[in-house]
Design goal:
Length: 496
């Protein structure tokens, strides 16, 4: 009886549990390492100015970053708080959708199972940014759409249009979720009725109006938009027609493997402990069908896109807008009859993983993979101290981590990388052109960046080579080189 009350307590106060978890994660991130990760550093670069677009990613996350910097101050706390707030909002929206589909216990199981997805529970905490926002927007898109088909009105139609526009400005793979949602809704009578109503027209108009300004920016800056297209492997000349589909299958497996194993274990237990009483859970059939079809059609649309585009590389994080619903969809079918033992197994597994993540995240920041340092061990303070001796006021580099961490430590400096050359800011002299390693020549893309920003070719200058150990890795040096344009490097060198 006590265990029954424990499970009921968890289900009743589930939202408070996840809120506490993300408050704890914010605290852990703040104290784990002062060095920004790759995506965190990227936001320091982009947030130097407010504009309709920045680089290869949509602008919404940067707009939110600028807002949080203005409220909480520029730096690590604001970035950590923003990320964990978005993760909480994503979990909350999944919970709200799950409550529309099932009883509180089954809804809690489906939502808690998000922690079984490493891309959401681990990578989102460790490294990601735009994908976190896209997850939150995708989850709220589903919930608001459920509200619209449940009881349509103008306010809900307005909200749905707004969340779709926000999703489109979060990350481009959001459109896989949107397409799958619309196709799935077309097969469900009540949802199809909303799609053919005046309310849906209102939603569509809101989307168009909100997306016109950033769409113009994208049209005028296509070189920046497509600067990361190489990640899809489109340039490979020799490839089998199924290469991309094999990569997609591997990415799907990697994304859901942990959830599949744990769900299979809980489901099989019903046969081992056959005496356990299975409790029927209320399930809203149209909502269960909608969620399931979104996953099915989302994967189908993704597969068709991969095949048609000729992409050979699919990374598991790109599947977030579709597969974040996979545990909930599975739970609504597999555990529509669930025993107390199965519920405790799933809640216990989720709780244990949450504790393990809280322990491993700071260890990863400090010790990397125990073979080489992580991005959070970059000796950025030593690099900034070196550049300061040359009177540097601007830094151009090819590294997100270098640029962002330099900008975090010296917010008065202007910073840029080739992908963010469209920032409308001034780059005062002296300018340091900085790159990893000890190559003699300035990388070609850095020389091109300087010429694009300053309007003149990069002048010849003395190359300075430095090496400083990573934080907590005294035996592992970070090698970098730089030149200084417009400074008095000879006098600075003498003073050293």
């Amino acid at each position: 009886m006590a265990s029954d009350k424990w499970v009921e307590f968890v289900a009743d106060y589930f939202v408070w549990f996840i809120a506490g978890y993300f408050i704890l994660q914010t605290t852990i991130r703040y104290f784990a390492s002062p060095v920004l990760g790759l995506d965190e550093a990227e936001q320091i670069i982009a947030s130097q100015t407010f504009q309709l677009g920045y680089g290869p990613q949509p602008p919404l996350y940067t707009w939110l970053t600028i807002l949080f910097f203005s409220v909480f101050g520029k730096g690590l706390f604001a970035t950590a708080f923003l990320k964990n707030l978005l993760l909480f909002l994503g979990y909350l929206a999944v919970w709200l959708s799950a409550r529309k589909a099932a009883d509180k216990t089954l809804a809690a199981i489906g939502t808690a199972s998000l922690i079984f997805l490493p891309q959401i529970s681990w990578e989102s905490q460790r490294a990601l940014s735009h994908s976190v926002l896209m997850f939150a927007c995708s989850a709220w898109t589903l919930y608001i759409f459920v509200l619209c088909i449940e009881k349509p009105n103008w306010w809900r139609a307005l909200a749905f249009g707004e969340i779709v526009a926000l999703g489109a400005m979060s990350k481009y793979n959001y459109f896989f979720l949107l397409a799958a949602l619309l196709v799935s809704a077309g097969l469900i009578p009540k949802a199809r009725k909303f799609l053919l109503s005046k309310y849906a027209i209102c939603s569509a108009l809101i989307v168009v109006v909100l997306l016109i300004p950033p769409a113009f920016w994208m049209f005028e800056n296509q070189d920046l938009i497509y600067s990361r297209v190489h990640k899809f492997g489109l340039e490979k000349t020799e490839r089998h027609f199924a290469t991309g589909l094999v990569s997609l299958a591997a990415a799907v497996t990697q994304f859901v493997a942990v959830a599949v194993v744990l769900y299979a274990g809980a489901w099989i237990s019903r046969f081992y402990w056959s005496g356990d009483e299975q409790v029927d859970q209320y399930v809203n059939e149209p909502i269960r069908l909608l969620i399931t079809l979104i996953v099915v059609f989302g994967l189908t649309i993704t597969a068709v896109s991969v095949f048609a585009s000729g992409a050979t590389v699919v990374k598991d994080r790109w599947l977030q807008p579709v597969l974040f619903l996979a545990p909930l969809a599975a739970a609504l079918w597999i555990f529509s009859e669930v025993s107390m033992r199965q519920t405790k197994m799933l809640f216990g597994s989720a709780g244990a993983l949450a504790v393990l993540i809280c322990v491993l995240i700071p260890l990863n920041f400090v010790f990397g993979n125990f073979k080489k340092p992580s991005a959070h061990s970059l000796p950025s303070l030593a690099i900034v101290d070196t550049l300061s001796q040359y009177g540097v006021r601007s830094v151009l580099t090819t590294s997100h981590s270098l640029a962002g961490n330099v900008g975090d430590l010296r917010p008065e400096w202007s910073i840029s990388i080739p992908e963010y050359s469209g920032l409308g800011i001034v780059y005062p002299m002296p300018i340091a052109v900085l790159w990893k390693g000890h190559s003699q020549d300035v990388p070609a893309n850095l020389a091109a960046l300087y010429e694009k920003l300053e309007g003149v070719p990069l002048p010849r200058a003395e190359v300075h080579r430095e090496a400083t150990p990573y934080l907590n890795w005294s035996e592992y040096p970070f090698d970098y080189s730089f030149i200084v344009i417009g400074g008095k490097s000879q006098s600075a060198e003498a003073s050293r």
